[in-house]
């Protein structure tokens, strides 16, 4: 298989696993989240080895907060928790997919060439548009608070900011990928860097009473 096909196949498998765990919830979802957070922290420690104790603490917080946010979102009463969790997934995944394909098809202007030379302004807008469209459709279909219509494009931009942050870590460490666990995708940090801000900021918005 070529690189794009490998990326698509492995991406579909990962999405299917995440959806099944989210729908079942409870122990199964908690175990998945804990395993992912542990794997992320392992990769963080490998990338930042020798950078000092502060980076270890930062990595622990970086991996812990989104894990707690996802578990808290899923445990909300009734269908609200699952619907909101799936919205988080949809915004994150559609941002990544929209940015990837829009960047490949239309990308000309570099977004942050010193951090991630392959990312483009067109890819950024493609990700934002995809998240606004698909995230908005999910809000309409499930009856989530209308504020999530506005939050979808905002958090899509935050997701791409998370991607750039992780790219900056890798550039400083001199590595291409955070790991090699996922065919066509690299490591867990490479795949979950956008989910980190989306999960955390969604929880903050709910806790603050904004939605």
TrEMBL record:
<protein>
    <recommendedName>
        <fullName>Phosphatidate cytidylyltransferase</fullName>
        <ecNumber>2.7.7.41</ecNumber>
    </recommendedName>
</protein>
<keyword id="KW-1208">Phospholipid metabolism</keyword>
<keyword id="KW-1003">Cell membrane</keyword>
<keyword id="KW-0444">Lipid biosynthesis</keyword>
<keyword id="KW-0443">Lipid metabolism</keyword>
<keyword id="KW-0812">Transmembrane</keyword>
<feature type="transmembrane region" description="Helical">
    <location>
        <begin position="123"/>
        <end position="141"/>
    </location>
</feature>
<dbReference type="Pfam" id="PF01148">
    <property type="entry name" value="CTP_transf_1"/>
</dbReference>
<feature type="transmembrane region" description="Helical">
    <location>
        <begin position="12"/>
        <end position="38"/>
    </location>
</feature>
<keyword id="KW-1133">Transmembrane helix</keyword>
<feature type="transmembrane region" description="Helical">
    <location>
        <begin position="50"/>
        <end position="72"/>
    </location>
</feature>
<dbReference type="InterPro" id="IPR000374">
    <property type="entry name" value="PC_trans"/>
</dbReference>
<keyword id="KW-0472">Membrane</keyword>
<comment type="pathway">
    <text>Phospholipid metabolism; CDP-diacylglycerol biosynthesis; CDP-diacylglycerol from sn-glycerol 3-phosphate: step 3/3.</text>
</comment>
<keyword id="KW-0808">Transferase</keyword>
<keyword id="KW-0594">Phospholipid biosynthesis</keyword>
<keyword id="KW-0548">Nucleotidyltransferase</keyword>
<feature type="transmembrane region" description="Helical">
    <location>
        <begin position="84"/>
        <end position="102"/>
    </location>
</feature>
<comment type="pathway">
    <text>Lipid metabolism.</text>
</comment>
<comment type="similarity">
    <text>Belongs to the CDS family.</text>
</comment>
<dbReference type="GO" id="GO:0016779">
    <property type="term" value="F:nucleotidyltransferase activity"/>
</dbReference>
